[in-house]
Amino acid sequence: MFCVLFLSVIRPYARHDREFGHECQRIRRRMVVLQLFAPQTPVGFMRILLLLLSLGLPGTALADVDFQTDKDARADVAVMAGCFDAAMTWEDAQACVNITYQPCIARLGRKASHADESACNYREVGLWEHLLQIETRKLEAWTVLKDNQIVAESSLRPNAHEIFLRGEQSWAAYLRAQCDFQVQEVAGGTAGMTVGPHCAMDRTVERLFTLRSFLTKIMGEGQP
Asked: What single DSSP character describes residue 189?
């Protein structure tokens, strides 16, 4: 039941059904180990239900992409994800930044204005935020499982999810402050239309690289 509910949130963002199935199997195994549905842990069950509800809430994105109306969005995300998945280092991942810009401009079929260029840049910001959201949701689910493990195995106060939320707030504040600062350096010119989204892309890909590396590690160890 939990697997179905959780992955109903993740599935629209998964690249293919095989990934969906693998995530489901991993969650099922962890549920058995942690016995999250046992009568003695009703609080854990309720926390997971609350988490599921929260996952459906919109985040504080800098850019939004409507996958229903943007017919090229999913294909572009697949290109970005393929480039990112092949990146072995942060420097390799940086080469994936702005990978959809030229195709976006080409699809206009006319000479691009500054507004067009800005729109294509911010569109890719939204696509990177989309990929980051997938990894963030996985990590948040892991912190809930970790807290339930702590409750089941010790008398310590569980705070993995609380720390995660503080980290997300700090990350959002850092992103905005860093990019606002860079935009101010070129204030008054059209360069700001490029500097802002490029900063957001760089920082978002950096965050994505960090989270995915951590998730790969904990998935490989079979934890929480």
From this structure: S
Global pTM value: 0.72
Placement of tokens 């994505």 in the chain: 208
Flag residues of the chain having pLDDT under 50: 1-2, 4-20, 22-23, 26-47, 49-50, 52-59
> DSSP H helical segments within the chain, as ranges?
2-10, 17-34, 42-55, 73-86, 90-94, 101-106, 114-153, 160-185, 192-221
Longest dimension (CA), the chain: 65
Give residue-wise pLDDT tens across range 88-130: 888 899 999 999 999 999 999 999 998 899 999 999 999 999 9
The C-alpha atoms of residue 31 and residue 52 are separated, in whole angstroms, by: 15
Dihedral of the alpha carbons of 168, 219, 145, 61, in degrees to the nearest 10: 20
Q: Which DSSP letter does residue 113 get?
A: P
